[in-house]
């Protein structure tokens, strides 16, 4: 999954996180608990969706670092036509912000769990596979250590995600060929943009695979350029093949990301506001277990740390801003996985 989603999601949730980091008197806090922040928006009318085409970017550039031990073989996705799996994605984050000289305390979100159904809708003779993802519930779980205002605001924001659909076509190496999204209408701009980016990323669940045969111990680097809303993010993902048994593959991954300096237009900003990114660095690591005959990894875990510095120009008033983000994410098949070897 594209990790550019992390920062887009963080910006989408930033207003709620920032509001809950502020100190308030008991009366206003009690009022906030009973009424979610208006900035979060309201849920759209049921059944109203718009179709958004996904323009595939350049496929990842893959470089073999080590071919691994013999025997070696090509790794290719070959999910069974008609296969469907129920999946869950669980995430949590801690974000700290600094505006000028004012430092806000780090805020931790409650666990958020999205469920969905991923189906193989078409398998073509050239090896391309079309999959359809339909999101079910997007739950924000209760957590005794989290401000109830944040829980309420996040539940309001995430309510519109239920029912979102994406359809993606990938080739046997995991590269995206085409796709589209169906997202609810009537959402606030920040939630809509976050949902669009999340849907695009969810459509890219496949691991980029090398074309050369590899064996246990092999490693390769996949370099991907992610462009969205003026953001140009270069990601280097280094994969190591830890185990290979039949169609089951176990991988370790190390992530490095850098954002090219320049203007960035995150969702939710007032008109006329410009964001100039001065620095952005991100590192992470994770584990992946997948079966080549399934449409997504059986389980994938990722921990990311990101540091970002920027300058915000709002109607001629300039303000420096720094954000530190720690995010943990787990993607898993909960029903429909193939038997283990």
Structural features, described:
There is one protein chain. With 341 residues, this protein is α+β, with helices and mostly antiparallel strands. It has one domain (4-21, 48-335): Lipovitellin-phosvitin complex, beta-sheet shell regions (Roll). Helices cover 15% and strands 48% of the residues. It is built from 4 helices and 16 strands. It has a 16-stranded antiparallel β-sheet that branches. The two termini are 25 Å apart. Residues 1-5 and 23-45 have low confidence and may be disordered.
State the low-pLDDT regions, or none.
Answer: 1-5, 23-45
Mean pLDDT: 81
Report the CATH topology name.
Lipovitellin-phosvitin complex, beta-sheet shell regions
Query: How far is the N terminus from the C terminus?
Result: 25 Å
Categorize the overall geometry. Answer: globular
User: H/E element string?
Assistant: HHEEEEEEEHEEHEEEEEEE
- What fraction of the residues are assigned to beta strands by DSSP? over 45%
Rounded to an integer in angstroms, the radius of gyration calculated over CA atoms is: 21 Å
Helix % is 10-25%
Helix segment tally: 4
Compute the number of structural domains. Answer: 1
Largest β-sheet summary: 16 strands, antiparallel
- Strand count: 16
Named at the architecture level, the CATH assignment is Roll
CATH first level: Mainly Beta
Structural class: alpha+beta
């Amino acid at each position: 999954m594209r990790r550019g989603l992390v920062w887009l999601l963080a910006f989408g949730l930033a207003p709620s996180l920032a509001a809950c980091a502020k100190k308030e008197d008991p009366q206003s806090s009690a009022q906030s608990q009973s009424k979610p922040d208006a900035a979060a928006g309201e849920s759209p009318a049921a059944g109203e969706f718009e179709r958004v085409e996904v323009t595939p970017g350049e496929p990842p550039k893959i470089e073999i670092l080590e071919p691994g031990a013999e025997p070696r073989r090509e790794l290719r996705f070959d999910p069974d036509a008609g296969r469907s799996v129920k999946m869950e994605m669980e995430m949590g984050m801690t974000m700290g912000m600094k505006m000028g000289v004012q430092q806000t305390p780090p805020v931790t979100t409650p666990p958020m769990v999205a469920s969905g159904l991923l189906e193989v809708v078409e398998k073509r003779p050239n090896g391309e596979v079309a999959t359809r993802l339909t999101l079910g519930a997007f739950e924000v779980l209760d957590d005794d250590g989290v401000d109830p205002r944040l829980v309420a605001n996040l539940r309001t924001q995430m309510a519109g995600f239920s029912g979102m659909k994406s359809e993606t076509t990938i080739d046997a190496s995991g590269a995206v060929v085409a796709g589209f999204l169906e997202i609810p209408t009537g959402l606030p701009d920040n939630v809509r943009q976050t949902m669009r980016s999340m849907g695009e990323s969810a459509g890219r669940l496949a691991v980029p695979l090398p074309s050369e045969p590899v064996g246990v111990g092999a490693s390769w680097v996949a370099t991907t350029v992610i462009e969205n809303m003026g953001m140009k993010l270069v990601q280097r993902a280094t994969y190591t093949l830890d185990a290979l048994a039949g169609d089951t593959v176990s991988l370790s991954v190390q992530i490095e990301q850098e954002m090219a300096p320049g203007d960035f237009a995150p969702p939710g900003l007032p008109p006329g506001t410009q964001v100039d990114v001065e620095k952005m660095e991100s590192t992470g690591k994770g584990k992946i277990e997948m079966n080549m005959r399934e449409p997504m990894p059986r389980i994938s875990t990722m921990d990311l740390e990101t540091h970002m510095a920027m300058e915000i120009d709002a109607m001629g008033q300039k303000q420096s801003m720094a954000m530190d983000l720690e995010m943990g994410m787990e993607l898993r098949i909960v029903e429909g996985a193939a038997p283990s070897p």
